[in-house]
Structure formats: structure tokens, C-alpha cells
Give the backbone structure.
Amino acid sequence: MKKQLDNISFEDILVDSDWCFKNARSVEQWTHGYHRYPAKFLPNLVKKLIEEYTKEDDLIADLFAGCGTTLVEAKIHGRKSIGVDINPVAELITKAKINPISPDKLEEWYNLIISSFDEFKIEDYRDSNVHERIDYWFTSENKAKIAFLYSKILAVRDGTIKDFLLVSLSHILKNCSRWLQSSTKPQIDPNKKISDPFAAFRLHTKQMLKKNTEFYSQLSKDRHLRTKCEIKLEDARRTSIKPNSVSAIITSPPYVTSYEYADIHQLTAYWYEYIKDLAKFRKNFIGTFYSLNQELGCDSVLASDIVNTLSSKDKRTAKEVANYFKDMNEVGNEMHRILKKDGYACLVIGNTTIKDVKIKSAEVFAEILNSLDFKIVKTIKRSIPNKLIPTIRDQNTGRFSKLESNNSKLVYPEEYILIAKKV
Ligand SMILES: C[S@@+](CC[C@H](N)C(=O)[O-])C[C@H]1O[C@@H](n2cnc3c(N)ncnc32)[C@H](O)[C@@H]1O
């Protein structure tokens, strides 16, 4: 049954400077900087949520784990954690970030791989048969070097070390391709100064080694090395997490029709053979522009109003937003199923404007949670440092863009943290 929230006007809430972290360290601690990831959490925000809403040994879940920020912070704080993401690239990155390796052992493998570069002969790898899209993105020399590196990494038998090295290679793929470096959209830069895979791998892996050592040492010191921490390749709408088992959920759902994670991670997905068909892969992502056409099935009056207003302007976008709200309703149900009684759901979510219609995702979420017998105990408003999330949306395509143009509009200068309790 649809339920409308009384007196919800999030616009009137004042920005809470305690949650803005204006002076946050620019260098990321622990394993956070292993791999770029669009719209990833600010670790300080997760840290504060963990400290305020959980205690040691609690089980924390993140249903949109992305590159695993919640899980890394949970582990360092001695909380058990479980993460879910639909994206195999997210699963790989998170696996590497939550499993620190004995630094000496890792250094040995790093040296072995680096010394193998002397064996490389381009003619042995030039015809490597990967995927036609790989030929589109890479020069033949870089393709051969990456194929060589990939084969060396695949030969590593220790799964944790292999994941670590695969993450390093995955991170440098963009730098070594023709992909416009500053863009999350698949776009060729004809003038790009393309990195050499061996040099880029050496440099990035070195940085990762340092981070691994820092994380490993701290966890050993605090006796948290064995704290349970797990990532699953699953859909947030129907996970295998046990009912009533989770003390707190700390998560940030995807934004509506903005980032196409399937497109963004296609270089890794093709190289590592996670996908063959990009179009099919895209459909499982929530918030995608390419979602299946469904009707609105969401317990929020506000959601219906937004979709109806948008429908009079652009039917296709209205359907995408309707799909998004319907998916979010299913996620709300799943959160309710896995949380213990009195457990907290902490959701970080931003509003936006598409075709001049305000898409009040945070308020819709609040309505959904209320209709599912959650009690909203706190709503925090924070401003977002724009280096973490683009603040411009193209009014014609609805997508995020970096450059300001006549069509662009400011989005997400602020976001909300909803704290809801399962009652
Ligand atoms: C805003 S990002 C989360 C970033 C994360 N907080 C971090 O720090 O890296 C949203 C994530 O939702 C994931 N996602 C999209 N649809 C999903 C689905 N149906 N089930 C699970 N995860 C999904 C995307 O792959 C993406 O990693």
C-alpha cells in the first residue's frame, strides 16, 4: 500500500558540517586507492557511520559494495562484513582490497613478474585473440604487452596474489588504451599520450604494495587479520544473505541513469572474459539507461508524481526512472529481510534534476523505507567534494558530463544520509 510521508522537505535540512569532511586526507589510506571507481564512498564517511551505528563483532552489509570501501573500513574496525555487487570487476577489486597479503611473499611475486618482462617478444603475442573491442581500444604493441602480462599473472597459483596483480593490471588498462583519460564514457582520445603497460604496471603495483603493507600491519597489530569479510557477485534485490543476520547496512545505491558501470569497466570485462555481450551485461545494473521496460511498482506517492511529471516531457526517461524506483523498492524489501530487529540501514543518496524535473531519490527512499516498517531516525545533509563525483548533467542526454556547456546543469552538490531502524 502506498504511504506518503508527513512534512518531508529535505531541501530545508541544513548541511551538517560534521559529515562533510572538508579536510579529508587526499591520499587514500589502507587499500582504498587500489583501483579507480566512480561514485565510491569517502572512507571517512563510512568510518563515522561504523563508529556511530555499530560495535565490534557486528555484521555489516553493503548491497552495492562497488570497490569495497565499506568492507575495508569494517575490517579495520574489527566488524564482520559482507558485500554484494552485480559487477564482476567490483567483485575482483573488493576481493583484493579486503585480503591483505604477507608483504614479503607479495614482494617476491612482484619481482618475479617484473623480471619476466625481459622474456617478452612481441611476435609471440601480437595475434592474441581476445575480443574485437580490445582491438578498438588498444594499439597492437600494447595489446601484445598486456596479453603477455595477463598470461604471467594467470600462471600465479596463489589466488589472493593473483587477484592483487589482476587488480593492478585492470587499473592501468585505461591509461594504456585510447580511452579519453578524463572521461567515464567510452570515448577515444585521438591525441592521448598512451602509457606503456610494463612501466604503468610496475609503478602502480609498487604503490599497491605499500598500501598492502600498511593495511596488513595495522590489521595484524589490532588482531583483525582474520575478521570475516566476504564479497559476493549477486543482485542486491535478491541476495543469499541469511534473514535477520545483519546488524547494520551501510550502502550507497547507484544514481539514476548516470554511470553506466558495465560500459565503464568494459576494458577489464573483455580482457578477463567476464562478458561477451555488453548489451546483455548492462541490463542487470540498477539505474542503467538500458534497463528493461517495466511499470512503476513502488510504495511511494512521491515516486508516482515524479514519474508522471517526467512522462509528460519524455516517456523513455520516465520509464527509466520508474524502473529505478521499482528496483529500489525491491532493494528496500531485501534490506528489511536481512537486517536484525533494531538494526540500522544507513543509505547515502543524492537527488538530481533530469529534464527540469526534480528526481528526489532521497525522499522517495525515505517513503519506501517508511512503508516497509523502518523508522527514519536521522536524515543528514552533506555537501560533496566535486572531485569525487561530477556535478554536471547534460540536459539532453541526462548523463553526467565533466565540461560545462549550454546543456549542462549542476547536480548532486549535496547528498543525504538516511539512517533508518528496522522496528
Ligand atoms: C554508487 S556505486 C557504490 C560504490 C561503493 N559505495 C564504493 O565505495 O565503491 C553503486 C554500485 O551498485 C552496483 N550495482 C548496480 N546494480 C546492482 C544490482 N542490481 N545489484 C548489486 N549491485 C548493483 C554497481 O555495480 C556499483 O558498483
The longest strand covers residues 339-349.
